[in-house]
Structures are given as structure tokens and as C-alpha cells.
């Protein structure tokens, strides 16, 4: 068992936790954007219309 006061173990644990949180945030953001795009498609809004891009994305 590594000691909780081991700086190397703390750094590795922090880095691994940070990567997991970062990955979860990226997946959440990606899903959120996909949902917004799907809603815009359902509302018959052209996503690539220059006036609607700022509303949809």
C-alpha cells in the first residue's frame, strides 16, 4: 500500500482523476452540442445558415 504522503502517488492519483474528469466533461459537452443540433434539425432550422449558426451552436 502506498503512503498517502507519497508525492509521486499523489501526483499520479491527481493526474488520473483529472483525466477522468476532463474526459467526462468533453463527452458531456459533445453530447450537449449534439442535442442542440438535433433540436435545431427538428425545428427545421438550417444549422449552416450564417444567421442561425450563432443560435444553434
Question: Could you name the key traits of this structure?
Answer:
single chain; 57 residues; mainly alpha; 2 helices; membrane; transmembrane; transmembrane helix
What is shown here, in short?
The chain has 57 residues and is an all-alpha fold. It has one domain.
- 3D shape: rod-shaped
User: Distance between the terminal alpha carbons, to the nearest Å?
Assistant: 48 Å
Radius of gyration: 20 Å
What's the total number of strands? 0
Number of helices: 2
SSE order in H/E notation? HH
Estimate percent helicity.
over 70%
The main pleated sheet reads as: none
Give me the secondary-structure category. mainly alpha
How much of the residues is beta strand, in percent?
Answer: under 5%
Mean pLDDT: 75
Q: Note poorly predicted spans.
A: none
Counting structural domains, the number is 1
What would you say this structure looks like, in words?
- The chain is mainly α and 57 residues long.
- It has one domain.
- The chain is 70% helix and 0% strand.
- It is built from 2 helices and no strands.
- It has helices at residues 7-42, 53-56.
- The mean pLDDT is 75.
Layout of SSEs?
Blueprint: H1 7-42, H2 53-56
Amino acid at each position: 500500500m502506498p503512503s498517502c504522503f507519497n508525492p509521486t502517488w499523489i501526483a499520479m492519483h491527481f493526474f488520473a482523476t483529472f483525466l477522468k474528469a476532463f474526459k467526462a466533461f468533453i463527452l458531456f459537452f459533445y453530447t450537449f452540442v449534439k442535442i442542440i443540433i438535433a433540436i435545431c434539425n427538428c425545428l427545421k432550422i438550417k444549422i449552416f445558415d450564417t444567421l442561425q449558426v450563432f443560435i444553434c451552436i
